[in-house]
Amino acid sequence: MNRKRGLRILFLDGPNLNVLGDREPSMYGRETLADIRGAVTAAARSEGATVAFFQSNHEGEIVERLQSAKRRFDGVVINPAAYTHTSVAIRDALLYSGLPAIEVHLTNPARREEFRKVSLVEDVVVGRICGVGGYGYTLALLALLRHLRREGARGQA
Among this protein's residues, is 28 annotated catalytic? Predict the structure, then answer.
């Protein structure tokens, strides 16, 4: 079996990421979530992987998507956004999924307000990519695929 093919990655985005491009462009830039998804889709295609995307401003919807990912995906790239600092529920759902995950942030939380320096998911993900804008999503995809190929596709149903 060609281990480069067939891996399925779920991208989960939290609140306010649906308004990228309009939201605080001096901090987040003009790139939209659709732009980021286009770049990720192209990278996934070249890597022989499949990606799916989900964004919600509602914590419970993110939790439900993580729960349902358990048997449908091999890994998760997650930007919990503001929920990074507050949601034990998302952390628990990520653990429940049993899937390897990469945490991604457009900005570098370590260089921002004090409350943004705490991530409730950082200790349950295999890696974290921050501060490189939308390109971080492509880096997260590549890092997760590398991890899955090295460790074996443990998330495969």
Answer: yes
